[in-house]
Amino acid sequence: FLLQVDPTYTGRVGASEAALFLKKSGLSDIILGKIWDLADPDGKGYLDKQGFYVALRLVACAQNGHDVNLSSLNLTVPPPKFRDTSSPLLITPPSAETHWAVRVEEKAKFDGIFESLLPVNGLLSGDKVKPVLMNSKLPLDILGRVWDLSDIDKDGHLDKDEFAVAMHLVYRALEKESVPSQLPPSLIPPSKR
Question: The domain containing residue 130 runs over which residues?
Fold first, then answer.
């Protein structure tokens, strides 16, 4: 490990190199800060070999669900895991964007309404969706925006997922939330990403 962060054998690892390396452990900044404080107790701003060893041990402890403190250093834990930056797959953590803002129970309700409108080939035409939107008594400009946002593939029809987006936006608007000018990533159905 030391070679990766101290290629010139100076026997010390600067704060920025160490921070970059420790970040690859996937631990939160708060925990990494604690680890740093314990590994560099005198606040030298760099880690010597011993300090770096302490940091690695504490990363391993944290990754295995142990507290970050000096007594954890005596625990037997598997070696710390670091993501290799050259493999991009590991580095993109699943962000909040991957989940869909339409909740499961909402979706079930919207699917029911969708089916009740007798979709053709899994699609509802604008004419069929319009009365449902109008029913909300929202201003026409808002409803127009809801339609534009939810007809994601711009085919003039809504499929089940697009309809759920439309209904979600309508319910939000009824709660006095503003309808966004473009669809946030969390509202784009997984099938459309």
Answer: 104-187
Q: What is the pLDDT of residues 79-137, one digit of tens each?
A: 888 776 554 444 334 444 446 888 888 889 999 999 999 999 999 999 999 999 999 99
Residue 146 is part of a domain; what is its CATH number? 1.10.238.10
- Nearest CA to 144 among 107, 123, 184, 173? 173
Q: CA 22, CA 179: separation in Å to the nearest integer?
A: 41
User: Is residue 80 in some structural domain?
Assistant: no
The Cα–Cα gap between 80 and 63 comes to 7
Distance, C-alpha 130 to centroid of its chain? 34
The CA distance from 188 to 165, in Å, is 8
Among the three residues 26, 56, 74, which one is the final residue of a domain in this structure? Answer: 74
